[in-house]
Amino acid sequence: MQMIRVRTRMALSACAMLYRSSISGPVRLMTTDTQSVAAKLSSSGLLRSQALIGGKWVDAYDGKTIKVHNPATGEVITDVPCMGGRETNDAISSAYDAFSSWSKLTAAERSKYLRKWYDLIMAHKEELGQLMTLEQGKPLKEAIGEVSYGAGFIEFSAEEGKRIYGDIIPSPLADRRLFVLKQPVGVVGAITPWNFPLAMITRKVGPALACGCTVVIKPSELTPLTALAAAELSIQAGIPPGVVNVVMGNAPDIGDALLASPQVRKITFTGSTKVGKKLMEGAATTVKKVSLELGGNAPCIIFDDADLEVALKGALATKFRNTGQTCVCANRILVQEGIYDKFANAFAKAVQNMKVGDGFTEGVEQGPLINEAAVQKVESFVEEATSKGAKVLIGGKRHSLGMTFYEPTVVTGVNSEMLLAKEEVFGPVAPLLKFKTDEEAIQMANDTNAGLAAYIFSTNIKRAWRVTEALEYGIVGVNEGLVSTEVAPFGGVKQSGLGREGSKYGMDEYLEMKYVCLGSMS
C-alpha cells in the first residue's frame, strides 16, 4: 500500500532539514539567563530530551537528533531525538497493547488518574510556563495562562468521562430490547502544532484518555519540550506505561506510520489546511476516524454602534495574542465607514504602546515569531499590500531587537484582493478593511474557504444576532475577543476542519457507537 506523503522528500535527510530550517545564522550558545532557566527546569525533572515509548525514555534508534532553539535569542536549548517510522510503529504497538487494559478500567478509575495529572500540571505551572516561553517565545504571563487553560481540558475530561451515556430505544417488537453503547475508538494518533505547545495536546489527549483510548503524540519539532514535560507528569500521575507515548522528528515518516497502521483508529490534527487535507486523504486508506482543526481567516467586524473601548480591547486581544500566531486571530478587521478613521487612529495608538521583547522580560506583551520563515511570510504579505495601495499606519518592519521580532503593525486601505485579507498572516499585522452595510460586512466575512472563528462588536443585539446567524463560522464571539474555553465546542466549518474539541461534544470524537439488539425476551 502506497501512502500519501505529508511532504515531498528532498535530497537532504529530513533531520538535517529540520535542523537547518529552524535556525538563521550561526548556532548560538546559551547565555547565562537561558542557562539558569534551563538548569532550573532540568533540576525539576521537567526538561526531558528523549521520547516516551511504552513508559520508557528513549533516543532515536539511529542516534539522530534535532536542536530545539529559543526563538527570542537563537540559542540552542537542547537536542531531542529525530525519529521516524520504526520508533512510531513501536509507539503504536505500545499504545495498542495498553489499550486492552486501559479501556477496561471504569470511567471513575480513569478519572482519578486524569485528576492527578491535572493537579501535577497546576502544581508545576510556573516551570511549564518557563519552558514554553523558552522554546516558543510567548510572554511568560501568557505562557502560564496557557498552562492553566490547557490543564482545564484534563480536568474537564476527568469529570465528563464519567458522564458518557448510552441509550435505550423503545423496541417495535415485544420480545426485543434495543440498546446503544458508547465505547472508546482505540489508539489515537495526535499531531499537534508549535503555537500552543501544551493546550493543543491536552485538549486531544484529555478526552481521548477519559474515553478509554490510548495515544501516540507527535508534537512539533519546534516545541517538543513542553509535550515531553507534560508526558513526564503523566507518568508521575501513575498513568500506566503505553497509555501516553510521544515521538518526534521526521514528520512525513511519523505521519505515514500513523496513517498506515490498522491499529491506529483515529487521527486528530491541529495545523495547516494543506497538511490536514493530506492526512485526511491518507487516513482513507484504512478508513480511520479523523478530526481536524485547520487554518482560519477570522473576520473581526466593528459596527458603527459598537462601544469603541470594548471593540478596541477585544480586537487587540484577538489580533495580538501569541504575537498573532493563532488560528483564531483576527486576520481581517472590518470597520464600518462611519467610524473607520476614529477606530484606526485609536487602534494604532494602542498598538504603538505594546512592549516587544524576550518573553522573560517584565511587561512584554509581544514575543518573537517562531522562526525566520514566519518573519519572511509576514514581510511578503505587508510588501504585497503596500504595493497595491495599502498604507502602513504603524510598524511594518522587523523590530530593532533583531532575530525574529517584528513590529506590531496596523495597515489601512486593505481590500479583499490582497494577501493580508485572503490568507492567514500568522503574525502581528492587523489589516483594516472598510465596509458600508451589514450585508457587505457579511459578504466580505464569508468570502473565504475558511470558517473557524469570527468576531462581532455591536451594541445592537438584533444586529449582532442577525449577523451571527449569517456568518459561516464554527465560532462567533460577540463583543468578546477571547472565546476559547474547555467547556465549549471548538472547531470550524468549510475548510477549517472537521469535528469539535472541548465540551461534551468533543468527547464524542473519541467514541464509537454500538447498537445492541437483545432478543428472546418474552
From TrEMBL:
<dbReference type="InterPro" id="IPR010102">
    <property type="entry name" value="Succ_semiAld_DH"/>
</dbReference>
<dbReference type="InterPro" id="IPR016162">
    <property type="entry name" value="Ald_DH_N"/>
</dbReference>
<keyword id="KW-0560">Oxidoreductase</keyword>
<dbReference type="InterPro" id="IPR016163">
    <property type="entry name" value="Ald_DH_C"/>
</dbReference>
<feature type="active site">
    <location>
        <position position="327"/>
    </location>
</feature>
<dbReference type="InterPro" id="IPR016160">
    <property type="entry name" value="Ald_DH_CS_CYS"/>
</dbReference>
<dbReference type="InterPro" id="IPR050740">
    <property type="entry name" value="Aldehyde_DH_Superfamily"/>
</dbReference>
<feature type="active site">
    <location>
        <position position="293"/>
    </location>
</feature>
<comment type="pathway">
    <text>Amino-acid degradation; 4-aminobutanoate degradation.</text>
</comment>
<dbReference type="GO" id="GO:0004777">
    <property type="term" value="F:succinate-semialdehyde dehydrogenase (NAD+) activity"/>
</dbReference>
<dbReference type="InterPro" id="IPR015590">
    <property type="entry name" value="Aldehyde_DH_dom"/>
</dbReference>
<protein>
    <recommendedName>
        <fullName>Aldehyde dehydrogenase</fullName>
    </recommendedName>
</protein>
<feature type="domain" description="Aldehyde dehydrogenase">
    <location>
        <begin position="57"/>
        <end position="516"/>
    </location>
</feature>
<comment type="similarity">
    <text>Belongs to the aldehyde dehydrogenase family.</text>
</comment>
<dbReference type="Pfam" id="PF00171">
    <property type="entry name" value="Aldedh"/>
</dbReference>
<dbReference type="InterPro" id="IPR029510">
    <property type="entry name" value="Ald_DH_CS_GLU"/>
</dbReference>
<dbReference type="InterPro" id="IPR012394">
    <property type="entry name" value="Aldehyde_DH_NAD(P)"/>
</dbReference>
<dbReference type="InterPro" id="IPR016161">
    <property type="entry name" value="Ald_DH/histidinol_DH"/>
</dbReference>
